Amino acid sequence: MSTQAPHPTLLIPGPIEFDDAVLQSMSHYAESHVAPGFVKTFGETLTMVRKLFQSTNPAAQPLVVSGSGTLGWDVVAANLVEKGENALVLHSGYFADSFAACLETYGANATQLKAPIGDRPSFEAIEQALREKPYKIITITHVDTSTGVLSDVKRVTEIVRRVSPQTLVVVDGVCSVGCEEIAFDEWDLDVVLTASQKAIGCPPGLSILMLSPRAIETFKARKTPPASYYSSLANWIPIMQNYENLKPSYFATPSTQLIHALHTTLSQITSRPIRERFAAHRQASDRVKAAVAELGLQQLASKPENQAHAMTAIWLPEGLAPPDVLPGLLKRGVIFAAGLHKEVATKYIRFGHMGVSITDPARGDIDKAIAALKEAITDAKQAKGL
Ligand SMILES: *Cc1c(COP(=O)(O)O)cnc(C)c1O
Description:
Elements: E1 9-10, H1 20-24, H2 36-52, E2 61-66, H3 69-79, E3 86-90, H4 94-105, E4 109-113, H5 123-132, E5 137-141, E6 143-144, E7 149-150, H6 153-163, E8 168-172, E9 191-195, E10 206-211, H7 213-220, H8 233-244, H9 256-270, H10 274-294, E11 311-315, H11 322-331, E12 334-335, E13 337-338, E14 348-352, H12 356-359, H13 365-383
């Protein structure tokens, strides 16, 4: 039995349901952020972040900084691109627009390579764009949470290394790290950024990044200092290295309780082969997608190879909008999210299926949600005379 107060099951694409142990670890007594107990917790957490990214390269650098996933964009934009340099932003939904806006805030010249809604830029288009001009970085949204579109990070990185080897490959993994395969070293990635509250199942409030030695060298070779103080790598890298070496260190106070929660969730995730976790998410995703098809509904991501495994974006039947369906889901104890992609937000809903809702099948979250979806759609159609 869960120790949490009864509540509807949160099945949005983050924040997600918490494991009891993760939540309980936040009620830790007060500690100094430079005392040996906390330094050990933080140091171990950073080491587990390496495992989360399947990285064994000691020269790669994990960072855990207070802030949300968005802070990861600022870290990239402030440290890895300089004014007037080119960034190629692969667009598979809403989040690419925002990442491009963040890059431009720091003076980068962001070019978006767009695909129709529910699709991703083709490999040919990416190769062609890379040949047109030199790009300092390319950004890929691994799973665009507004459309449920999955990108093929491994293939795109192979193209970059062949056509424009110096371009830094930056992955927005906010909705993918922990449920979609990522092999940081093997795929030769430069930055993967994520947040605590999505697929890794920790409360919101931590920005988590992994940097390659190439990314760190690029930062060190800057001609101008970063135009951000809080997100400057010069300030954070030594702190992270000290914590991992169990030395107290201070730049800005860490969120001590959240670090405890992250330590707990990463201990759970890394205690089993991470491939099992990816496979469990794929299986659950197949089940959700089959149920959606059985209801006669379509997904925004229409090609199987483009479909994320931790969420599904579902077109509503013609004539229905999210407010016709979401209250019916809530009445049945589940919470989905409305659409987010601004052009079509009123026409679809999003179902997040990740974390404990998948790894603890005894909870029955997915069966409950599928049944609720079926009933809520039927009720809404009836109410509208459809
Ligand atoms: C949620 C999300 C973000 C933003 O993260 P916040 O924690 O809300 O700041 C960025 N990119 C993607 C793909 C996301 O899903």
